[in-house]
């Protein structure tokens, strides 16, 4: 692992790292913030999954998470959203919602994406092992959050990996990819047209099929230009209500889809995670 | 004035605006954050001047000032650091420390820069009039801060415009441009070799020549790669001590020159400004 950047920030350290990933067959870049802490202590870990077009850099620069992480004693890891590099196939049309920056947190099975687009395995298995090895991380205390496509990733990972994450939250997540254009395009391209497979990567379907978390927090701006066509939080609210899955869905008046929205509520989310991570198990 | 972007953030509104500047003879872009406030109230204004290579965007995206501005009721204005556009001459060598992104907060008098590089007039006169007209700004309560080259701008403007600014602070400022390579190169190029003129744009010289503020706050990281050659805060500390100018200079261990440093201490600075802006005059 190479440390590309290392900056003291809010008394802790913000790093940007690159490593050769066996999951994706490429170099992968991620960022990690380690708050100030006593030598020898191991700290809870919050995973932050980013949205379409983003890399680790967007939340690292614009997410405003370091103050709260420093106060609460949380490590925050921000992975990339797809494999990168000259050998990695991109969408031939060059669209922003497929290919580079748009891995959708699945393991692709279809050509030409299957070789490198293995973001589920990368984030579920490979990167946690690296974080545990390289950082003072207590892997018994993990939680996960994300924005937009990354909200989809956070919800599906938390709902499927029972017991892995003590908390999950999302900013303007894609909750029903099987029912919206972004998700349908990605799933058809990466994993084909088997709709039963899609259900394993769809938060609404996972809740319908019995997956559960103790509770879920979602913030959604009502001035988000993707709200009506791509995000549809009402589908998730209805599924959770039918299933008895606790959900706190907050519609935030005037807020859009940008990091001006995410940063506003970041400390709220981190406090909510800390409440579930920092008590005794 | 055109509003290029407008986002709700921390209950207020972050805008990015463009207008035709008579000072620079170009379009100029700036950002302004207006915190949540009651209708009809006018709010104190903090000016934030940015460093070399920056535009309004760096602090707007990475500065982490909105939470504190919202809590304290402060407007924050972030101008650009030079004129921009195809007609604007840049350094023929393309260096980062002269020309575009490097206006050094002076009115240039030398060819080919004199026509457009008039950042002192733009920030001292033209932009405040626009802000007063377009925003709920109380121009009787202004303060100024900046980073690096922008710290130089903030210190020199506060020291020269007696009574304009109730507070001034800086992150890793250029305090003695006449004595360091960045400043010497810029001053020779923009305003020629009359050293008496340089003293009007040099915080150390201004304090030596009798300019005063009630107090000054400076934060400086001790891992800043520009510290020894370009920043030299010890020169300002010595000048302030000789002159009886109150100065709080904090050397922050481990911090570098980046926005990871600026954002860490931004709320500190804004609280310090608010203490001087929000009481009765």
TrEMBL record, chains A, B:
It catalyses: S-formylglutathione + H2O = formate + glutathione + H(+). Pfam families: Esterase. The keyword Hydrolase applies. This is S-formylglutathione hydrolase. Serine hydrolase involved in the detoxification of formaldehyde. Keywords: Hydrolase, Serine esterase. It is an enzyme of class 3 (hydrolase). Its EC number is 3.1.2.12. InterPro entries: AB_hydrolase_fold (IPR029058), Esterase-like (IPR000801), S-formylglutathione_hydrol (IPR014186). Belongs to the esterase D family. One of its GO terms (molecular function) is S-formylglutathione hydrolase activity. Coiled coil: none annotated. It comes from the Bacteria. The keyword Oxidoreductase does not apply.
């Amino acid at each position: 692992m190479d440390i590309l950047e290392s900056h003291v920030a809010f008394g802790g350290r913000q790093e940007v790292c690159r490593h050769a990933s066996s999951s994706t067959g490429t170099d992968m870049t991620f960022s990690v913030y380690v708050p100030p802490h006593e030598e020898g202590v191991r700290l809870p870990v919050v995973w932050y999954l980013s949205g379409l077009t983003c890399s680790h850099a967007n939340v690292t620069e614009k997410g405003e998470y370091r103050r709260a992480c420093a106060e609460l004693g949380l490590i925050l890891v921000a992975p990339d959203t797809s494999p990168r590099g000259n050998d990695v196939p991109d969408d031939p049309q060059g669209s922003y919602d497929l290919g580079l920056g748009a891995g959708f947190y699945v393991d692709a099975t279809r050509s030409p994406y299957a070789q490198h687009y293995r973001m589920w395995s990368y984030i579920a298995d490979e990167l946690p092992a690296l974080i545990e090895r390289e950082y003072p991380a207590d892997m018994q205390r993990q939680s996960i959050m994300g924005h937009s496509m990354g909200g989809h990733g956070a919800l599906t990972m938390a709902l499927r990996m029972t017991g892995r994450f003590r908390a999950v939250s999302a900013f303007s997540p894609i909750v029903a990819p099987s029912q919206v254009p972004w998700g349908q395009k990605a799933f058809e391209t990466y994993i084909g047209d088997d709709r039963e497979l899609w259900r394993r990567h769809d938060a609404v379907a996972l809740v319908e099929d019995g997956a559960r978390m103790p509770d879920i927090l979602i913030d959604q701006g009502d001035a988000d230009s993707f709200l009506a066509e791509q995000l549809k939080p009402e589908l998730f609210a209805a599924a959770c209500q039918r299933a008895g899955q606790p959900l706190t869905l907050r519609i935030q008046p005037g807020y859009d889809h940008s990091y001006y929205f995410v940063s506003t509520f970041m400390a709220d989310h981190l406090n909510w995670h800390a409440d579930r991570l920092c008590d005794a198990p």
